[in-house]
Amino acid sequence: MNFAELGLAAPLLQALDGLGYQTPTPVQAQAIPAVLAGRDLMAAAQTGTGKTAGFALPLLQRLAADETKVGSNCIRALVLVPTRELAEQVNASFRQYGEHLAVGCYAAYGGVSINPQMMRLRRGVDILVATPGRLLDLFRQNAVKFKEVQALVLDEADRMLDLGFADELDTLFAALPRKRQTLLFSATFSEEIRSLARGRLRDPLSIEVSPRNSTAKAVKQWVVPVDKKRKTELFLFMLKDRQWQQVLVFVKTKKGADELVARLQAKKIAADAIHGDRPQASRLRALESFKAGEVQILVATDVAARGLDIDDLPQVVNFDLPIVAEDYIHRIGRTGRAGASGEAISLVCADEAPLLGAIEALIKQTLSRDEEPGFEPDHRVPATGGAAPAPKKPKKPKTGGGRGVPGNWVGFDDGARPARRNTGRGKAPGRGGAR
Ligand code: AMP
C-alpha cells in the first residue's frame, strides 16, 4: 500500500516524497480514503501514530479541489487542539504537506497577543488550527466567522475535555454550520467523548489504532532504582557514562525542572526547561534549540511536553515518574517515533513504587530493574507488578462496540491502551495549554 493508492493527488505525493514518507501508517490507510470521500470519522489514535497526516492530507486535497476563495474573516476548515504547542505543530504539518498547494493555514492560540491574529484573519484563512478558548474570544469579537466552514477536526478531544474546554466546545458546536465534515480524534472513548460526539457526527467511520509505543515494541524501557536524594548525581553519571547525546527528561514539577536545569548548567551542560510558567516564546525557543541540537538536555513537565514531535530522539529519562500513569505512555512516545528505536529509563525511588505499580498495570508488563553499581538505594523500592498488590487500578478504556460508539472498529495492534486520566471536567488552571 502506498500513498498514491489511497487517492492522494500529485502535489501531496511530492511533498510526502520530500519528507521521506513511503508507507501510510494504519491510521492513515484508514482515514485518508474515508476523509477524501467526505465521511465523518471517529478515530482512537494518539500522537505518534501519524494521525496528523491522516486528517491533514485529505483535507488539504479537498480544499485545494474546491477553488472557492475564502471570504474575509472566514475559514474553510477548523482544527481544534488542546494546547498551543500542538497548534504550532499541527499548523507546521499542514504547511509541510501543503507545500505545493495554494491552501493557506494559520494557528491561533492563547497566551500571546490577539491583535496579530485578528489582523491575519481579516484576509480569511483556509485552515485555522486553534485552541478552543482563544478561538471563542476571536469569534466573540467577530474576528472569525464560521459560515464557510466545511470541515471540523477535533484533535486530542479527550485532552481538550481534561483541560476543561467542554463548555467552549459546546458553544463552538452551536455556532458552526450543521452541514460539515467532522473528524474526531481521541486517545480513548470515554462516556464524555461519546456524549461530545453524539448527534454531531454523521455515520462516522470508526478507526482504532493503539499508540505506536503502547507495547513499547520499538522502545527499550527499564527502571533504575535509586534513592531520591541521589537522582541528580545518578543522572549526571549515566549521561557521561552512556555518552548520551540528547535527552528529554521528564520531571514532576515546574520547580523541579528549573532546579535540574540549574544543576546541569552549573556543570556546563547545555540544558533548558519547558514548562507552563515559562512564556510561550521561550518555550518554543527551548524546543527549537533542542531540535537543532544546541541544547543537549531538555527538561519538561508533562503538560508542556504533550504532543511534542521530536524526531529520532534516542533517550527519554523519567527523572520522576508521572502521577498519572497514562502520561508514562505519552512520555516514552517521544522516543522510538515512526519506527526508530529508543530507550526510556525511569529513575525510581522508594516513594514512587505505587506510581510504578500503576504504570506496570496500565502497560501490562513489569519493567525490568537494573541497579547502577555505586547507586544502589538505601531505601529499597518495594516490589511491584505481579509481586505486589496492584495499586489503584486504572479504569479500563471503553472502546469499540460500547454504547453509543458506532461499529466498524478496525484494530491494528493488540497493545495496551491507556486509560483516561481521572481529572474530571473542572476548569484546569492552565487552559489552552498554559500549564
Ligand atoms: P503524529 O502521530 O501525527 O504526531 O506523527 C508522528 C510522527 O510520524 C511525525 O514525526 C510524522 O512526521 C511521522 N510520520 C507520520 N506519518 C508517517 C509515515 N507514513 N511515514 C513516516 N513517518 C511518518
Lay out the secondary structure.
Elements: H1 10-19, H2 26-36, E1 41-44, H3 51-65, E2 75-80, H4 84-97, E3 105-108, H5 115-122, E4 125-130, H6 132-140, E5 151-154, H7 157-162, H8 166-175, E6 181-186, H9 191-197, E7 205-208, E8 219-225, H10 231-241, E9 247-250, H11 254-266, E10 271-274, H12 280-291, E11 297-300, H13 302-305, E12 315-318, H14 325-332, E13 342-348, H15 353-363, E14 368-369
Parallel strand pairs: 1-6, 1-7, 2-4, 2-5, 3-4, 5-6, 8-13, 8-14, 9-11, 9-12, 10-11, 12-13
Adenosine monophosphate (AMP) binds next to helix 3.
- Strands of the largest sheet, in order across it? 3-4-2-5-6-1-7
Gyration radius, to the nearest Å? 22 Å
Instruction: Kindly estimate the percentage of residues that lie in beta strands according to DSSP.
Output: 15-25%
Terminal Cα span:
41 Å
Determine the fraction of residues in helical runs and give it as a percent range: 25-40%
Count of separate DSSP helical elements: 15
At the first level of CATH, the class of the largest domain is Alpha Beta
CATH architecture descriptor name of the largest domain: 3-Layer(aba) Sandwich
Mean pLDDT: 84
Uncertain parts: 212-216, 387-435
